[in-house]
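Thread: Tn3 transposase DDE domain-containing protein, structure

OP (GT): Posting the sequence first so everyone is looking at the same thing. Length is 78 residues per the record. Can we get the structure tokens written out before standup tomorrow? I want them in the notebook alongside the other entries.
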Amino acid sequence: MPAARSQHGRRDRRAQRNFFEKRGVYTHQNSLAATLREAWRLARSTFMLDWLSDIDLQRRAQTGLNKGGGLSRPQACG
């Protein structure tokens, strides 16, 4: 039984090694993904600053949310 466990452990280590080797191959894609994540963070931050400073934007969003709010309300049967 111990032989099976050690073989399984080797297989796991090999899979982990292959995973990290593959990640190293895609360094360009990884840096692109990191750049896109950072751009998304900047866009979210900009929107939050706009949201906090623009009362009209908040009102328009609230109005839109109120229009759709009745759709989730349970309807009486009968």
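GT: Both are above now. Quick notes for whoever picks this up: The chain is about 85% helix and 0% strand. The CA atoms of residues 5 and 61 lie 58 Å apart.
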